[in-house]
Specification:
18 helices; mainly alpha; about 80% helix; globular
Length: about 500
C-alpha cells in the first residue's frame, strides 16, 4: 500500500469512526432519554449495578486478544482461530458461573432482585466473544465503514426493542432487552461484514504469541475498569439502586460525549501512532495534533454541559431526575479532564510499553479507589468530586513519567489545552450571566436552547479570531476532508510509509 493510499485510509477512518461514534452516541442518547422518561431511577440503578459486574467479566472474555491482533506485525489464520475459540469458551464458562452465582452477587450489593438481571445479561458475553475477532480484523485494515454501519444498526434495533418494552410496561427488563438485542445484532453484522471464518483448531504456539501482549493488556484493562467503575461500584454498594440510578444517568451523558468526541480519534490514533513509533519527531507532532483537535472540541462541550445542566435535566428526563443536576455538573469537569488524557492508552501501546501502561493504571486505580472510599461518607456527590480530583492529579503524574520514557515534551501537549480552557471559561461565564439576568423565568426547553446558541456563538467567534485555521480543520474533519490549515495539517503529520500489519493466510488451513 502506497503512502498516499495509507493517508487516505487514515483520513477516511477518522471520518467513518466519527460518523459511527457521533451517530451512535446521538442515537444512544435519544434512546436513553426515552427510557429515562418511561422508567424510574430505581430501574436504571438496578441495571447499572448488574452492568458493572457484566462489564468486568467481559474483560476476562476478551483477554486483550483484539488489541494483540491489531498490534502484531504479522498475523495468520491460526492466531485468529485460536483467539476466537478461547474467547467463546471463556464466554460460555462465565455465562454459566454468572447464572449460578448471581444471587450471591445480588446479596453483596443488597439487591436480591439483581440475580435474574445478571443471569440474562450474561448471555451478551457469548455474542461479544463471537464478534471480537472480526472487529479486530476490520480495525487492522482501518475499515471503519463496516464498524460504523454495524454500530449504528445495532443501536437502532436494540433501542427500538428497549423502548417498545418500556412503553408496554416491562420496567427493568426493557433495559435488559435493549442490551441483549444490541449484542446479538452487533455479532450478526460483524459476521456479515468479514469473510474470515474460524476453523475448529487451537494452536498453543499462536496463543503464546498473542498472550505475550494480551496478558499485560488484560491486566491493564482490569485496572482501568476499577479506575473507571470504582465510583459506580461504591455508590451502588453504599446507596443501592436508588442512589446509583441518578449517578449512573449523570455519568452517562459525559461518557456519551467523551466517546463521541475522543472515540473516533482514539480508534485511529493507535494504528497511526504504531506506524510512526520509530520517528520521534513525527510521533510527537501527531500526538500534539490529536490533542489539539480533541481539546478544541471537547472542552467547550463539557463546560457547556455544566452551564445548561439545571435546565437540561428537567427538560430531557423530567423533574423526577433533579438529583442528577449537581452530579452532572461535577462529572462534566471529569469528562473534560479525561478527554485531556484521551490518548494515554494508544500512546503507550503503540510504543510497545504495556508495562508502563500497567504501572500507570495501577496508580490510577489505586488513587480512584481510595478517593471513592474516603468520599463515600459525603454521598454520591462526594464520590463524583473525588473522581475529578483523582483524574487531575493522575494527569500530572502521567505527563511527568510518560514524557521521559515515550520521548515527547509535556509542554507541547499542555499548550494545546490553554486556548480551549480560557475560551470555554469565558463561554461559561457569559451563559451564567444570561441565566441570571436574561432567562431567569424561561421554561427549561427555552433556556436550554438559548444557552446552547449563546455558547456556540461565543466559542466559535472567539476561536475564529484566535485560531481560524484550526476552526477550518475541525470543520473539514467533520466533513471527512482535511485541508491545510494554520498548524501542520493532520494528514501531513499522519502520512508515513506504510508498515501496517497484514493478515496472511495460514498454509496449513485448507
Amino acid at each position: 500500500m502506497s503512502p498516499g493510499s495509507n493517508q487516505r485510509k487514515i483520513v477516511q477512518g477518522v471520518a467513518w469512526a466519527s460518523a459511527a461514534s457521533w451517530g451512535g452516541q446521538l442515537l444512544g442518547f435519544i434512546i436513553y432519554t426515552g427510557l429515562a422518561r418511561l422508567l424510574n431511577p430505581e430501574a436504571f440503578g438496578l441495571v447499572a449495578i448488574a452492568g458493572v459486574y457484566i462489564a468486568f467479566i467481559q474483560l476476562l472474555v476478551a483477554q486483550g486478544f483484539g488489541m494483540a491482533i491489531v498490534q502484531r506485525e504479522q498475523v495468520d489464520d491460526s492466531h485468529l482461530d485460536s483467539a476466537f475459540w478461547i474467547a467463546v469458551a471463556f464466554a460460555f464458562l462465565l455465562c454459566v458461573l454468572s447464572n449460578v452465582f448471581g444471587p450471591q452477587v445480588g446479596r453483596l450489593f443488597g439487591e436480591p432482585r439483581m440475580a435474574p438481571v445478571i443471569g440474562w445479561l450474561s448471555f451478551s458475553l457469548f455474542f461479544h466473544a463471537m464478534s471480537s475477532i472480526q472487529m479486530a480484523i476490520l480495525t487492522r485494515q482501518l475499515d471503519f465503514r463496516a464498524l460504523a454501519i454495524r454500530s449504528l444498526l445495532a443501536t437502532i434495533i436494540g433501542g427500538t426493542v428497549g423502548l417498545t418494552m418500556a412503553f408496554r410496561g416491562w420496567g427493568v427488563w426493557s433495559l435488559v432487552g435493549q442490551q441483549l438485542t444490541n449484542a446479538i445484532m452487533s455479532s450478526l453484522f460483524m459476521w456479515w461484514s468479514v469473510t474470515w471464518r474460524p476453523a475448529l483448531r487451537i494452536s498453543r504456539q499462536h496463543l503464546r504469541d498473542l498472550y505475550k501482549f494480551s496478558l499485560n493488556l488484560t491486566g491493564n484493562d482490569v485496572l482501568w475498569f476499577f479506575a473507571q467503575k470504582s465510583d459506580q461500584t461504591m455508590v451502588g454498594y453504599g446507596f443501592g439502586s436508588l442512589g446509583l440510578g441518578p449517578y449512573s444517568l449523570a455519568s452517562r451523558l459525559p461518557t456519551l460525549l467523551h466517546d463521541g468526541i475522543i472515540g473516533p480519534l482514539q480508534s485511529v490514533a493507535f494504528p497511526t501512532f504504531s506506524k510512526l513509533q520509530s520517528d520521534p519527531e513525527r510521533f510527537e507532532r501527531a500526538l500534539v495534533r490529536f490533542c489539539e483537535l480533541s481539546s478544541f472540541v471537547s472542552f467547550p462541550v463539557f463546560f457547556g454541559v455544566m452551564a445548561v445542566a439545571p435546565s437540561l435535566v428537567p427538560w430531557l428526563f423530567g423533574v423526577k431526575w433533579l438529583a442528577v443536576v449537581p452530579l452532572l455538573q461535577v462529572l462534566a469537569v471529569y469528562g473534560a479532564a479525561r478527554s485531556g488524557l484521551g490518548f494515554m492508552h494508544p500512546l503507550m501501546l503503540s510504543k510497545g510499553r504495556p508495562g508502563l501502561y500497567l504501572a500507570m493504571n495501577i496508580i490510577l486505580a489505586t488513587l480512584t479507589f481510595i478517593g471513592c472510599l474516603v468520599a463515600l461518607r459525603w454521598g454520591p456527590l462526594g464520590v463524583a468530586i473525588s473522581v475529578v480530583v483523582t483524574m487531575i492529579l493522575f494527569g500530572g503524574i502521567f505527563l511527568s513519567v510518560a514524557s521521559r520514557t515515550l520521548q515527547f515534551r509535556p509542554r507541547a501537549v499542555l499548550r494545546t489545552f490553554v486556548f480551549p480552557t480560557i475560551t470555554s471559561l469565558l463561554m461559561l461565564a457569559i451563559i451564567l450571566f444570561a441565566r441570571r439576568f436574561l432567562c431567569a423565568d424561561c421554561s427549561p426547553a427555552t433556556a436550554t436552547f438559548s444557552f446552547i446558541v449563546i455558547g456556540v456563538i461565543v466559542y466559535t467567534l472567539s476561536a475564529y479570531f484566535v485560531h481560524p485555521g484550526l476552526v477550518r480543520e475541525v470543520w473539514q474533519l467533520v466533513g471527512g476532508h482535511i485541508l491545510p490549515s494554520r498548524g501542520e495539517p493532520l494528514e501531513t503529520v499522519l502520512s508515513a510509509p506504510d508498515h501496517s500489519p497484514k493478515v496472511t493466510p495460514d498454509a496449513s488451513k485448507p
